[in-house]
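Dear support,

I submitted the protein below through the web form. The confirmation email said the job was done, but the results page showed an empty box. After a refresh the structure appeared. I'm attaching both so you can tell me whether what I see now is the final result or a partial one.
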Amino acid sequence: MRSWTVAEARAYLPRLRELVAIVQDAGLVAERSGGNGHGRSATDDEVQAAMAELEAGDIVLRHLAAGLVDFPARGKDGVVYFLCYRLDEDDLTWWHRPEDGFAGRQPLPRDPE
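What the results page shows now:
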């Protein structure tokens, strides 16, 4: 599994926004058309490519509508955690333990305990 640093994840945010927008757009169009797939602005290939790129980076798309995304990270103390980002946020400023989820988000920086 890839471990992202805060700097790497922040640098990737513009591309992340593009990828999530492709997947969101396709989902909204399909939902509005009753799920028949007509009228999609993003092709199936574009959606699959966007999802494949997220998966290749081990980026977890938690909630499509909210654009909630987790980047896996590992602290200097060896603890695995997630850098947590939502599309409506200006910057990446949160983290949480895998077992705590979104409700356990804490502000960056993560200090080893």
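Response: this is the final, complete result; the empty box was a page-load delay. The chain has a mean pLDDT of 89.
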